[in-house]
TrEMBL record:
Pfam families per the UniProt record, alphabetical: Ferritin (PF00210)
A GO-annotated cellular component: cytosol
Residue ranges of every copy of the Ferritin-like diiron domain listed in the record: 1-145
Superkingdom in the source lineage: Archaea
Entry-linked CDD domains: Nonheme_Ferritin (cd01055)
Annotated keywords: Iron, Iron storage, Metal-binding, Oxidoreductase
Designated name of the protein: Ferritin
GO molecular function: ferric iron binding; ferrous iron binding; ferroxidase activity; identical protein binding
Native source organism of the sequence: Methanobrevibacter arboriphilus JCM 13429 = DSM 1125
GO biological process terms on file: intracellular iron ion homeostasis; iron ion transport
Length: 169
């Protein structure tokens, strides 16, 4: 069992991960509308990853004999000014999520909950990758936006992204 405080915090993070999936799906829908189907694909893959993150919290709570409490998922933003604006949002969102994971680790340490701390270390490493991937994509989108057919070429590249389940799934 985990403490009540930790139970609440882990359930809150489950919600935040599912919300992230919802946000990226909203970004995918924005790109479908602007006919950048490769960009939409990139966001769909991102959304799938977030749902898998949410399921990791779900499974951990179950494993610890703790109640999974699902709560309302807030409505995501649905409109952006440009592809660059979208990817700036992705990077800032991932930084916020990294902060949330760090807060959870702080709580686990405070409570001397070594199991939860160990579980969270996967997310600590994952957030490094998430921020790097968002930052790389943002640089590419900025660069592509300045070239005449840059977005078209990048759309083909983003269209090849596939969802790869993590090894622990
Ligand atoms: Fe689940 Fe992109 O953080």
């Amino acid at each position: 069992m985990v403490s009540t405080k930790m139970e609440e915090a882990l359930n809150k993070q489950l919600n935040a991960e599912v919300y992230s999936g919802y946000l990226y799906l909203s970004m995918a829908a924005y790109f479908e509308e602007t006919d950048l189907s490769g960009f939409a694909n990139w966001m769909r893959v991102q959304a799938q990853e977030e749902l898998s993150h949410g399921m990791k919290f779900y499974d951990y709570l179950v494993q610890r004999g703790t109640r999974v409490t699902l709560s309302e998922i807030k409505k995501p933003q649905f409109s952006w000014e440009s592809p660059v604006d979208v990817f700036e949002h992705v990077l800032s969102h991932e930084k916020v999520v990294s902060g949330m994971i760090n807060d959870l680790v702080d709580l686990a340490i405070e409570e001397r909950d070594h199991s939860t701390n160990n579980f969270l270390q996967w997310f600590v490493a994952e957030q490094v990758e998430e921020e790097e991937s968002a930052s790389d994509a943002l640089s590419k989108v900025k660069f592509a936006s300045e070239a005449s057919n840059g977005l078209f070429l990048l759309d083909s590249e983003f269209g090849t992204r596939v969802y790869t389940p993590s090894t622990s799934e």
